[in-house]
Amino acid sequence: MLSVLVTITVEADRQRGRIQAHTSTHNLKALWALHAMMKAIAAPPTYLITYPITQRQDSAPLLEYHAAGECELGACFQPWMTPPFDDVNAFASQEGPLPGRVISDKIVHLTDAVSGWMGARPRSFRTCSARLTGQILQTIERLGYRIDSSVTPLYHEAGAGGDDRHAPQLPYFPDRQAPIERGSSPILEIPLTVGWPRPIPELLLKAQRRLPRRLSARLPKMIWLDPTRHTLDEMKALAHVNAARGLPVLNVSMTSSELWRNQAVALRTLEGFLGFARGALGAQPRTMQQLCCHYINQALGE
What we know:
Elements: E1 3-10, H1 28-40, E2 46-49, H2 51-54, H3 60-67, E3 72-77, H4 100-118, E4 124-127, H5 134-142, E5 147-148, E6 156-157, E7 162-163, E8 188-189, E9 194-195, H6 202-208, H7 213-216, E10 223-224, H8 232-244, E11 249-255, H9 256-261, H10 263-279, E12 284-285, H11 288-301
Parallel strand pairs: 1-2, 1-11, 1-12, 2-3, 3-4, 4-5, 5-8
Antiparallel strand pairs: 6-7, 9-10
């Protein structure tokens, strides 16, 4: 059965630089409206929590939603907003990759902060604007995560974002050294849904993975299942294409700060898309952990 996820990176308003006392989180107000809508249509979201949110009292409604069983809470790694900081990485960003030891220390700090905030260990993870590397995968495996959703198949980004064009579009268990390849890690990778709003021949898809970036850029505009970036018609078209190709997951992703900037339109688009996914495509809404259980049970059943 086709599954539809809604994964939201919950982040601060100011997205770069050292954590300071005046870090604001006004954008959280948009989540309360989103959550009310999703509760009304029985579509539980997965909120992926960045470090600053764990330090804010105004994030308390998320804990209430989780206690009521209305959502899942996971962790999202933003290197530039996650302690510990030193003179080298005080303003680290996706443009400047950090040493492996620093990355691991930050992920441990994030996990401890999210665990203390929610009273349980998070099991779902995303690395935001930084490529899923072997170092990150092995670190989250040691910390007990079960699911990751960071890989963007078909997509190439200059800098630390890296080239994920060769990654599978289906959920998969990644290789510990090269996470965009299948391997033996126990962590289930749920790729983001990225692609084109009309069918692309398989031969062209395979060729696209090998083309220089300047040539692959000549393909039609790439669409993400993100209601803050794309229209309802664009998202429907991409979902139609992926469902027709037999891909089992529609992974809707967004950030709380972008939702806040265009709340009314984004919520209408998201509600319309979820209605379409359920009605026209027969998709079942799931959280990341629910999808992991469903996927593994299906695999065992086969």
